[in-house]
Write a structure and sequence with these properties.
CATH class: Alpha Beta
Largest sheet: 7 strands, mixed
Number of strands: 13
Helix content: 25-40%
Number of domains: 1
Order of helices and strands: HEEEHEHHEHEEEEHEHEHEHE
CATH architecture: 4-Layer Sandwich
Radius of gyration: 20 Å
CATH superfamily: Ribonuclease Z/Hydroxyacylglutathione hydrolase-like
Strand content: 15-25%
CATH topology: Metallo-beta-lactamase, Chain A
Distance between the termini: 47 Å
Structural class: alpha/beta
Strand order of the largest sheet: 6-7-8-9-10-11-12
Shape: globular
Oligomer: single chain
Number of helices: 9
Length: 271
């Protein structure tokens, strides 16, 4: 084989490799991945139309390495970044993400938030103070904001966990509920009645609040949505003792299949 033919074949191989990498994986399907970022939350969503969402980013740079597996280097584009609340294990890794990725919309609830970190993200925002009943459309996928409700006087927002975004995702027969670190005080105020008509035969995925802590277990909500799968984003051998044994026992009692990032790593759903 002469050098010219070898060169052509080599170029063809490189070209086909690039084409293969650029072909969208799971095209036309909904993908939700709960990244294993240790003691923190980072949830990646790719809608069937190709739009991409990141909910939280853990505390360190782990989420950036995880995202690199979802994009062809050096391209990284996100349509929405949601920061559920301003605790480091949810926003810490996002500064690097916003430096390395093009993000069309960066948003968070800024109730009582005036730190340097809040100011940094505020400069990136296209929509600040996201509020209850906001609806985000990703083609056939919709994400509805259920919480926080700034008009609700029954909740003490000085506990930053209670300002967590609670998001409901609906796509055909698939539904998921993301609760951030919202504690019982906030969860009992979330209006679940409005989403129940969309849930067929039980909620497909429930992201356990506050890494499976007992203060995030609000049983009446779980009775209403009847979750089929419960996800706990939590760090291995964390100092907080998360998840609570009582939470795990309750999930078992309601027959919710429970998966933990500290035990199995990244958890992905394709629908």
């Amino acid at each position: 084989m002469n050098i010219k033919v070898l060169l052509i074949l080599s170029l063809l191989y490189v070209f086909m490799s690039i084409v293969w990498l650029l072909i969208p994986i799971n095209k036309g399907k909904l993908e939700i991945t709960f990244f294993d970022v240790g003691q923190g939350d980072a949830i990646y969503i790719k809608a069937p139309n190709g739009q991409r969402v990141l909910i939280d980013g853990g505390e360190d740079y782990t989420v950036s390495y995880k995202l690199a597996e979802k994009f062809v280097f050096p391209f990284c584009t996100l349509d929405y970044i949601f920061i559920t609340h301003m605790h480091a294990d949810h926003y810490g890794g996002l500064k690097k993400v916003t430096q390395n990725c093009d993000a069309t919309h960066v948003t968070f609830n800024d109730i009582g938030c005036d730190s340097k970190t809040c100011n940094y993200f505020s400069e990136l925002l296209t929509k600040n103070s996201i509020k209850k009943d906001d609806l985000i459309s990703l083609g056939d996928v919709s994400i509805k904001v259920l919480w926080p409700d700034i008009k609700n006087d029954n909740v003490n927002y000085s506990n930053v966990n209670n300002s967590s975004l609670v998001l409901f995702l609906d796509y055909g027969d698939f539904e998921a509920l993301f609760t951030g670190d919202a504690e019982v005080e906030a969860l009992k105020e979330v209006d679940i009645k409005g989403i129940l008509p969309y849930i067929q035969g039980g909620l497909d995925v429930y992201k356990a609040s506050h890494h499976g802590a007992l203060n995030g277990l609000y049983k009446p909500l779980l009775v209403d949505v009847a979750p089929i799968t419960c996800i706990i984003s939590v760090g291995k051998n964390n100092k907080y003792g998360h998840p609570s044994s009582e939470v795990l026992s309750y999930f078992e009692s309601i027959h919710c299949n429970t998966f933990r990032t500290d035990e199995i790593g990244d958890i992905t759903f394709i629908f």
